[in-house]
Design a protein that fits this description.
487 residues, 11-stranded mixed beta sheet, alpha/beta, Amidase signature (AS) enzymes
Length: 487
């Protein structure tokens, strides 16, 4: 993409408002870039060029008249294909929904449109958000722009890869156990999981309803603050949406690191962590200490049980949520059998991929008579202990800083046949989801092989502005976000 069309949302917004560029120019340039690069990367499942150019033309009319619709007017964004979009396919990366066209927009999509955003298309993902590599997509894998033989992370791998490759100004992702932060770390971009309840889940196709949360994937922290401000806020259509005021996240970015108390959880620096990751994250923490933050080691003792608890809770909820895909109401229907039971069996056998089937079976087992107390109930008790660990630590510190993942991006195919190793890739992100806390991944360096490393910053419930301010203080003193993959 020509340099005069920056992928940086905040800079692009300024240039659009001054009419240095038009939305139509930017949108057309991005569509051309997608046509050239995405066949190799596989970030998009749907490119809506006609709709995007129509939206851009409407934005230009408003901007030329001096009456922009909102803070994203004319800016081309893309959506993880887990969000309901009226009149546009929503597949969730699954054959089950390959031809499904919703009749309504998700709340966050409505808010993007109201803010004037231009939607370029829908982005690839692990099927029903179940995966850490975007290799579980039923349609194609996504490749990491920094190294095409590596995964971009998952399940929001298409979102992170598209932002890193300059195929959109920003994107939306979803995070159930790390699915925004882990791909953001692998692709060298910023990814934020807000507090559970901060952003409406209405129109988000459910995986695990007590864990799912939508958030921004962007080039910079400033972009994340701007986009989150549009997404956040109470929604009466979502019973889990919290009715609490939304701060001005952009205005909060000027808050200093000086005086903040930062905890470093010892359980997050695990055996087997790559030295490049450990050193990059430690250097970022040392930088914050040098800027006046008080840094201390803390303990989250129940972290070691989080992965086991998560993969019982999440699979149990998936088993319940995905029961609706039976070939009767919408989505795929295989009707070659002799009776209704055959239709159910054929539809679900052919519509779901192996990882989704694995998780449905695990969850159904955990919820079954005689096993509920031993597994699901026990996992919920562990979840309470994990939440209490965080609450206890946040009585002493303002933020936690830690790695996002134990490694940099791994190779395509390296872990796809080893579910346990794949699940353990989320060991440092899952506890945040169990506790419903906000957290961000911000680039903090590169490995010796030139692969990005992410710093995870975790905060108290609804303390997104503190997290964003700390992330911005770190980001503006380094040039990590200025580095681009060679494509």
């Amino acid at each position: 993409m020509p340099e005069k069309f920056p992928a940086d949302l905040t800079t692009l917004r300024r240039r659009l408002l001054t009419r240095e560029v038009t939305s139509t120019m930017v949108t057309r340039a991005l569509l051309e870039r997608i046509a050239v690069l995405d066949e190799r990367l596989g970030a998009y499942l749907l490119v809506d060029g006609e709709g995007a150019l129509a939206g851009a033309a409407a934005a230009d009319e408003r901007l030329d008249a001096g009456t922009p619709a909102g803070p994203l007017d004319g800016i081309p964004l893309a959506l993880k294909d887990i969000l309901s979009t009226r009149g546009r396919r929503t597949t969730c990366g699954s054959r089950m929904l390959e031809h499904f066209v919703p009749a309504y927009d998700a709340t966050v999509v409505e808010r993007l449109h109201a803010a004037g955003a231009v939607v370029l298309g829908k982005l690839n993902m692990d099927e029903f958000a179940m995966g850490s590599s975007t290799e579980n997509s039923a349609f194609k894998p996504t490749r990491n722009p920094w190294a095409p033989d590596r995964v971009p992370g998952g399940s929001s791998g298409g979102s992170a890869a598209a932002v890193a490759a300059g195929l959109c100004a920003a994107a939306l992702g979803s995070d159930t156990g790390g699915s925004i932060r882990q791909p953001a770390s692998f692709c060298g971009v910023v990814g934020m999981k807000p507090t559970y309840g901060r952003v409406s889940r209405y129109g988000l196709v459910a995986f695990a309803s007590s864990l799912d949360q939508l958030g921004p994937v962007t080039r910079t922290v400033s972009d994340a603050a701007l986009l989150l401000g549009v997404m956040a806020g109470h929604d009466p259509r979502d019973s889990t949406s919290v009715n609490t005021p939304v701060p001005d996240y952009v205005a909060a970015l000027g808050l200093p690191l000086e005086g903040l108390a930062i905890g470093v959880p010892r359980e997050y620096f695990i055996d087997g962590m790559e030295d490049d990751v450990r050193q990059a994250v430690q250097a970022a923490i040392d930088f914050c200490a040098g800027r006046g933050a008080r840094v201390e080691e803390v303990s989250l003792p129940h972290t070691e049980y989080a992965v086991a608890a998560y993969y019982l809770i999440a699979t149990a909820e998936a088993s319940s949520n995905l029961a609706r895909y039976d070939g009767v109401k919408y989505g795929l229907r295989e009707s070659g059998g002799e009776n209704l039971l055959d239709m159910y069996l054929d539809t679900r056998s052919q519509g779901f991929g192996p990882e989704v089937k694995r998780r449905i079976m695990l969850g159904t087992y955990a919820l079954s008579a005689g096993y509920y107390d031993a597994y699901y109930r026990k996992a919920q008790q562990v979840r309470t202990l994990v939440s209490r660990d965080f609450a206890r630590v946040f009585e002493r510190v303002d933020l936690l800083m830690a790695p996002v993942t134990p490694t940099v991006a791994f190779r395509l195919g390296e872990k796809i046949d080893d579910p346990l190793q794949m699940y353990l890739n989320d060991i440092l992100t899952i506890p945040v989801n169990l506790a419903g806390l906000p957290a961000i991944s911000v680039p903090c360096g590169f490995s010796a092989a030139g692969l990005p490393v992410g710093l995870q910053i975790i905060g108290r419930p609804f303390a997104e502005e503190t997290i964003l301010a700390a992330a911005r203080c770190y980001e503006e003193a380094h040039d990590w976000v200025e580095r681009r993959p060679e494509l």
